Amino acid sequence: MSSAVHTDPGLRNIRVMVVGAGTMGGQIAMTAALAGFPTILQDISAEGLTAAEHDLARWAKGRVGKQKLREEDASAALGRIEYAGDLSAAARADVVIEAATERLEIKRDIFAELGRICPPHTILVTNSSTLGSSKIAGESGRPDKVCNMHFFNPALVMKCVEVVRNDATSQQTVEAVMALARAFGKEPVLINREVPGFIANRLMGAVQREALALAEAGVASREDIDSTARTALGHPLGPFELMDMVGLDVIHFIAECTYAETGDTADKPNAAVAALVEQGRLGRKTGAGFYEYARAAAG
Ligand code: NAD
To answer: How many Å apart are CA 176 and CA 147, to the nearest integer?
Structure first.
């Protein structure tokens, strides 16, 4: 059990701000704080901020209880997080990680405001899974300092961070964001141009497409397809199990975005997934998706 505080001298005195304290933002802020960065977590929702603060304290307590984190490191990290209700705190940030609701207009407004508030050197990244940063970089007035920094859920656990440059992103920005991800204890990968789904969601989409096609053609049951992915390919979850875990609404939304962008019929949203979403069977979170879950698993 050791402290994860980073030792990169180039990142000394860096203050991180995370915009949006939902599923991703809270855990990204805690990741930064555990790495030793003073961190501001901002959300327009006061309830959202309170819930994030509560969740992070509970997470830290759990880790300490399991002896995965020293109590002093947990309380030091929690103490590095400052909670803010508006964006004005961005005037003190060196890097802003935007993890707000996945809507283009919201992100455009945030980047425009950040462009006005932040000092000129501040790097602005988006955690968006489906929106390439080129769609919002112009609003900031500093497109060379903008890229995607895509974390995975749960951000405190998952090692991968996809750093996606757009045509205007400078090499200096790319290097700074890669270094920051490493300082967070992550294993970043660099994606040289914006492609829908980046790497991970693209790979996952291909497996899911094949799994859905095999099941629909009656070649094998969902259970046997999932079992094959686990026992032959070493995947921790089969594709149907994984879709249920991610949420079928999220899977459907990603497919819609990808198809809108590529127009490729291979990317067309799947009818079976769409039907389940229509029925409110969104996966584990609603207690049913491709599979049924015990009530406790739904909460
Ligand atoms: P979420 O709905 O859990 O949280 C979004 C938060 O943004 C909410 O708390 C909301 O109040 C806040 N918000 C909305 N407008 C805001 C504004 N103008 N200023 C500040 N805060 C604002 O969403 P999430 O799942 O955490 O997703 C956030 C981002 O992360 C999205 O871009 C998504 O694509 C990306 N992402 C999500 C996942 C995932 O599995 N959930 C994984 C990787 C990336």
So the answer is: 11
Residue whose tokens read 């997934």: 273
Atom of ligand 1 nearest to the CA of 100: 7
Task: Give the residue among 135, 164, 159 at the shortest CA–CA distance from 149.
Answer: 164
Interval 35-57: pLDDT, tens: 999 999 999 999 999 999 999 99
Q: What amino acid positions are annotated as catalytic residues?
A: 129, 150, 162, 201
Strands of the 146-151 sheet, one edge to the other: 81-84, 39-42, 16-19, 95-98, 123-126, 146-151, 160-164, 187-191
Q: Map residue 8 onto helix, strand or coil.
A: coil
Decide: 52 in ligand 1 pocket, CB within 6 A: no
pTM strictly above 0.90: yes
- pLDDT tens, position by position, 58-115: 999 999 999 999 999 999 999 999 999 999 999 999 999 999 999 999 999 999 999 9
- The Å distance, Cα 128 to ligand 1 centre, comes to 8
SS3 125: strand
DSSP labels, 140-206: GT-GGGEEEEEE-SSTTT--EEEEE--TT--HHHHHHHHHHHHHTT-EEEEESS--TTTTHHHHHHH
Q: Is 241 strand, coil or helix? A: helix
Distance 163 CA to ligand 1 centre (A): 18
Cβ(69)–Cβ(60) below 8 Å: yes
Q: Count the Cβ atoms, other than its own, within 10 Å of residue 293.
A: 15
